[in-house]
Amino acid sequence: MEKTLRVAILDLNNNVPNRGILYLKRLVESYGDLLTYEVFDVRYKNEIPDTSFDIYISSGGPGSPFDFTGGWDKAYFTLIQQLWQHNQTLQASEEDTSEVTNPKYVFFICHSFQLACQHFKVGSIKQRVTRSFGTFPCHKTDFGSRDLYFKGLPEPFWIADFRDWQVVNANKEYLESQGFEILALEKERPHVNLPRAIMAIRFSDNFFGTQFHPEADADGMLTHFYDPERKAQVIKDYGEEKWHTMLHDLEDDRKINLTHKTILPNFLNDAIMNLQGSLVPA
């Protein structure tokens, strides 16, 4: 019997209540004995996993991607570089089979995506004029239309997007030299004279990130936004039309629910198949 793969969930929510970590836990638990997980409170408790895990999922979180209060950033970026270097070294020594070592799989979400882009020097990280809040169409690039993790998604596909910051103005020549691929861009806004934000990047075969929240569960979000207090706050901040539009998108199985069932499961299925050749349960 193959060993159970270990998943490190890196919580970057800085002790702010959220549902993202719950969604990630449920997703990993759905794989039964194939996966186990541990949660690390990175920003609030300065908890950082070691490099012994097989899969790392780094969450979203509030605030500026340049706010490193508490000094957690040094250990976080060191870990990312160690995992990256592990994979690079492994790739360079593929012909040496004397010691079989598996690559590390890493997924960056929202705040973590901005940190990864900062670490790998991808474009400019800018604060938005207004916060992006809700459900939106997202457009695949040519790379994205061929990417394994987007397989099964339409063009455009729908995302849960909550961000005050964004990554823009990537240098295409630099990306090409590093082997990075931009997979998705935010919706087109022809009336706005601003660059479109980068919404997903494949950094390598094993490193992947999205600006949006692929872990967002439509049923859980419906329950969350139907809560009277939350509903009142959304209507106050963004208007009643935004609230109704978001609920409509959450109730449509072809939108947020499809994205939830596609991207992260494709990532985990790929990791499981490559790390131990196991058949993923249907």
Short characterization:
By secondary structure, this protein is α/β, with parallel strands linked by helices. It is built from 11 helices and 9 strands.
Question: What descriptors fit this protein?
Answer:
alpha/beta, Rossmann fold, 9 strands, nine-stranded mixed sheet, 282 residues
Describe this structure in words.
The chain has 282 residues and is an alpha/beta fold. The chain has a single domain, classed as Rossmann fold. Helix content is 38%, strand content 24%. Strands 2-1-3-4-9-8-7-5-6 form a 9-stranded mixed sheet, sandwiched between helices. Helix 7 runs antiparallel to helix 9 and helix 8 packs across helix 9.
Give the overall average pLDDT. 91
- SSE run: EHEHEHEHEHEHEEEHHHHH
Helix content: 25-40%
CATH superfamily placement:
Class I glutamine amidotransferase (GATase) domain
Low-pLDDT residue spans = none
| CATH class category | Alpha Beta
Distance between the termini: 19 Å
Contiguous helical run count? 11
Task: From the alpha carbons, calculate the radius of gyration and give it in angstroms.
Answer: 19 Å
Which geometry do the CA atoms define?
globular
Strand tally is 9
Beta-strand residue percentage: 15-25%
How are the strands ordered across the major sheet?
Answer: 2-1-3-4-9-8-7-5-6
What's the CATH architecture?
Answer: 3-Layer(aba) Sandwich
Give the helix/strand class: alpha/beta
* Fold-level CATH name: Rossmann fold
Q: What's the number of structural domains? A: 1
